[in-house]
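Usage example:
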Amino acid sequence: MNKRIYYGLYGLIVILLVLPFVVPNNFYLDLAVRMAINAIIVIGLNLLIGFAGQISLGHAGFLGIGAYASAVLPMHFGWHPVTAMLTGALASALLAALVAKPIFKLKGHYLAMATLGLGIIINIALRNEAQWTGGPDGMPVMPMALFGFEIGSDRQWYWVVAALLVLTVWGSLNLIDSPFGRALRALHGSEVASQVVGVNVARYKVSIFVLSAFSASIMGSISAHYIGFISPNFADFFHSIELVTMVVIGGMASVYGSIVGAVLLTALPQALATFEGWETVAFGAILMLCMIFMPRGLVPTLAARFSKGDDK
Amino acid sequence: MLAEFLQFLFSGITVGATYALAALGFTLIYNASHVINFAQGEFIMLGGMLAVLFAQMGLPLPAVLLLAILVPAIVGVLVEKLAIEPVKGAETVTLIIITIGASLVIRGLIQVWLGKNTFSLPAFSGDEPIHVLGATLLPQSLWVLGITALVVVALWYFFNRTLQGKAMLATSVNRLAAELVGINTSWVLFMSFAMSAALGALGGILITPITMTSYDVGIMLGLKGFVAAVVGGLGNGLGAVVGGLLVGILEAMGAGYISSAYKDAIPFVLILLILFFMPRGLFGGKSTDRV
Amino acid sequence: MSLLEVKDLSIHFGGVKAVQNVSFSIDSGIVYSVIGPNGAGKTTLFNLITGVYTPTSGEIRLDGEIIQGKSPDELARRGMARTFQNLQICMNMSAIENVMVGAHLRLDRNLFKAMLRLPALKRRDEALREEAAGLMEFVGLGEYVGARADAMSYGALKRLEIARALAMKPRLIFLDEPAAGLNPKETQEVDHLVRKVADSGITVVLVEHDMKMVMNLSDRILVLDYGRRLAEGTGQEVRANPDVIAAYLGTHA
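Running the assembly step on the lines above writes:
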């Protein structure tokens, strides 16, 4: 593809390097960490929704599995946080693979229903198994330690998450412009056309679903360690919808769009904090307006406007 | 033994009737437009909440019923006119997201207006339970079942015996053909949203004296209605009713015999099993994509 | 032995018998056409052979091996390519990517290697881009190499589908009405293109309504009517067949 698509990555690296030195205080650094975490989750989800054209309304369930693996396993069983995180991610991937096979024979609405059901079941389990999870009140999470070095301050977390974000963007851009990524986009564009050129459609859908579940689970673990506390709300239906909203607003099938979507919608609750209760209304209104007037999302719409003519 | 079983059955059928009404609402809109209206649950919530509000204002029961059905129907029409019509023919993902947006707006507005409290509505004809073979049945349950049965019969009559109903059916089978024979398909869309919002609201009003209501009950009720519609084979009216009752009964039985903590999970486990093993639902036909 | 053998093939949709007991065989290296009035079952026949539909009964053999019931992607592995009557272009991709996806099976499709952008993979992809540009040139789309798929005309997209199919390096290619909706000049260009494809050694199976093109290109012709085989043979034989004349003139003998 055109090399220009990587220019955004270089820009992102520059911003991430400069940011911690220009933010006025820790409040903004904390915000930046949470934006970056969401951006990584949303990029993974966008590979599924935007590129492969498959919806998931239960993605917060995988976040929950990761987060609770990192909370419960070290706390109750004395596991190392890294082992716990990887175990959670593998469990998410396994669960995703298990349900994906039958799910992806279905289309559109049925797929939405199945992923939604899965997410809700996970959430109910987290709420009910109080002896492990603390129930609806949630539970504290032990700090993350790597090679005997504890990641504690916001600033340390910032560098970890920033590095992960850069890797995720790079990996995703690479993936999209590869034989695998083309097959993925082709099955979105025309499923039957991709089949007759030899794409095993079910296998690609399952692979990308598993990958996005794995990435969501890892980021769930990281969120849990970063915040130091976790509750079932983290894994609920509303959070799944929030993530889908970020994908849609930033732009389906746009990696940079996912970052923009995550940044905007992570900042939004802060901006709306003064209007107690209107958050949900604003969220819903943005979703609808965006889909009606800008169905391709922010970044692709703007990109098309600026590069009319020489677009590739 | 029998008494216990009957008790679960009664509560299952009662709540199942609400799911059935919601599922019928999903089915109506799906048939008219191939949209799954994720805001359907909010109409159930609106029905219940508005009924409480109007009852507290001292209106007589018939007026409460009428208003609490009429207002959600208007909201349904607004959703259709403002959010669905402008994006005719959009991708499934887009339509799903728009209706989710609509549901958030409705829920948020009610939360801001009426608060986060839980409300109750007095039963239509007293709370004196009726004893049946050792189990108890609330009079309100009879109201729920009776009115649901009436509605199902009325809908059947509408779709099979009236011109308007047949026009709506024709549109669901083939929109273009319906337009060619002069059916106003935009009117059909309008009607289907109004009717399904009214059905949802009715269910919400009827069940509120038993289960109470708050601004956030719509999500679960709506999703379970959706489960019921899919169980019945999306798009099939009779299937929606049977699906609703089935989901309600299984939920009550599961809660009673297995685990009440996992009551809300039961419909979703059911739907996953059905999607895995009989993806067209219990009553859906087979279809082949044309290439 | 024939390359493709079809025996007693049938498919029913509910009560509709779209294809009924159709048999024929195609030798390697020829241009074989399937003709018949609208609704005769031509596209259904293509969908059956290429694995999009599963037949109700009957047998399909490729190189003597039974292939009915196999999925389209398995058949693609065996060298079968096709285009569609109703365009199946991926509008979310550029024109050249649509062609490149045709080479799917010849590439390293590993997910992790792709994410790491391994140099070997990258080099192979760049070589493929050249090859795809060459194919677009071959089908007469040289000017669209840098274009987006959704910016192309109907006629150009028809040819883009042929380029995508050729990128598979198939042994057998099914073209479903490649000239439908094209003007006479474009039709003639497609006529030449099909000839070029056949000359490159690929067996061509063609569904087409343009009789001049069919008669001009075909080595053998199968005539379908109401899902049944009405006649089969060379152009001369088919043209002289009274059943065929009756079907096309609308009288029943």
